[in-house]
Amino acid sequence: MNKKEVVSQLLDQKKVAILKVLLSSKEELSLQEIATKSKVPTTSTFRILQQLTTFQILQRREWKNSKVYKYNSQEQTEFLRSLLEEEVEGIDEFVRTVETTTNIQQIILHGGRKKGKANILLIGDNINLTLAEQAKNTLKEKGFDLSYLTLTKDQYDQMIKMGLYSGEKIVLK
After folding, report:
1. Residue 47: is its pLDDT beyond 90?
2. Residue pLDDT, tens place only, 113-159
3. What is the C-alpha to C-alpha distance for residues 16 and 21, in angstroms, rounded to an integer?
4. Given 53, 57, 94, 115, which is the most exposed site by the fewest CB atoms within 10 A?
5. Pair 42, 32: CB distance under 8 Å
6. Are 3 and 33 spatial neighbours (Cβ–Cβ below 8 Å)?
7. Backbone torsions φ then ψ of 76, nearest 5 degrees
8. CB atoms closer than 10 angstroms to residue 165
9. pLDDT of residue 102
10. Does the fold of domain 90-171 match that of domain 3-84?
11. Where are the domains of the chain?
12. Do 60 and 69 meet the contact criterion of CB atoms below 8 Å apart?
């Protein structure tokens, strides 16, 4: 068992689930959003959010009848990020999801691998983008920003000739 697994086993699983949701979110989240994404009952989520706010692990912002929460990124709490944050393998997850889509001839990573972000070219004719959109939205919820562009093989070849795609390219499929 590695360090992350040991810590996860020692901590309350509901707290771990809530912290993982907040660590992966770039936006402030409401109680209901946190409960839904963490799959922790709302009453437990409320209680845990109160504790984490008291310990200054979270920031709470209130106005009128609304409250939103965000991970309090500071020196005293950053060790939690290193222990709990799960790195999303967004590129691999996206490719696994869309590679079965008919009419995709090639999947190309344009611009190299970057943490939390990727640009993908889908090469083929009449590509059904339903799975690609679903995968993109799922990854966005996990904090991974993925952009894709569809091109026919002829369009891609022309753009290469024109020097429009001269950066680093990695063929993924």
Report:
1. yes
2. 677 788 889 999 888 888 888 888 888 877 788 888 999 999 988 88
3. 9
4. 115
5. yes
6. no
7. -70, -20
8. 17
9. 74
10. no
11. 3-84, 90-171
12. yes
The answer as to CATH 1.10.10.10 being correct for domain 3-84 is: yes
Q: Among 64, 63, 52, which residue's Cα sits nearest to residue 23?
A: 52
Three state DSSP letters for the chain? CCHHHHHHHHCCHHHHHHHHHHHHCCCCEEHHHHHHHHCCCHHHHHHHHHHHHHCCCEEEEEECCEEEEEECCCCCCHHHHHHHCCCCCHHHHHHHHHCCCCCEEEEEEECCCECCEEEEEEEECCCCCHHHHHHHHHHHHCCCEEEEEEECHHHHHHHHHCCCCCCCEEECC
Question: pLDDT tens digits, residue range 50-91?
Answer: 999 998 889 899 888 889 999 887 777 777 776 776 555 778
Kindly report the pTM of this predicted structure.
0.53
Q: Which fold has domain 90-171?
A: GMP Synthetase; Chain A, domain 3 (3.30.300)
> How far is Cα 36 from Cα 32, in angstroms, rounded to an integer?
6
